[in-house]
């Protein structure tokens, strides 16, 4: 991927996520932070997709995006759902879902089943990754309050 492609992906994802948040009637002051978080999640996904695969890239992006959305919700004193919507937008496999439907309609059931399986796996990976991000932050805050003491 060239640097120009990367920058175009960043700009397009930022605009798409801000537009998505506007459609969902998110308050105006949260559009830029939500858009930047969603753009960062998308760029992380793109960077990880090359050396790994779609499933691992989605999982890692969901975990990191979930942690970031929890932190931003504390910083901006707003519900975390605003930022969670921003990281969901780039991770949901919309094009694969569309292709699955197209394969079913055209009667190409073998490709349809492969794509449907991938859509279900990605949906599970996104939900598990987002829940894991919340758990990671809970464990971190617990360990910060209750440090471990090792006996020699």
Automatic annotation (TrEMBL):
One cellular-component annotation, GO: plasma membrane
Keyword field: Cell inner membrane, Cell membrane, Membrane, Transmembrane, Transmembrane helix
Positions of transmembrane segments: 6-24, 31-48, 54-73, 80-98, 118-143
Family note: Belongs to the ThrE exporter (TC 2.A.79) family.
Protein name as it appears in the record: Membrane protein
Membrane topology (UniProt): Multi-pass membrane protein
Localization, UniProt: Cell membrane
Chief location: membrane
Threonine/Serine exporter ThrE domain: residues covered: 9-132
Source species: Streptococcus cristatus
Gene Ontology annotations of biological process type: succinate transport
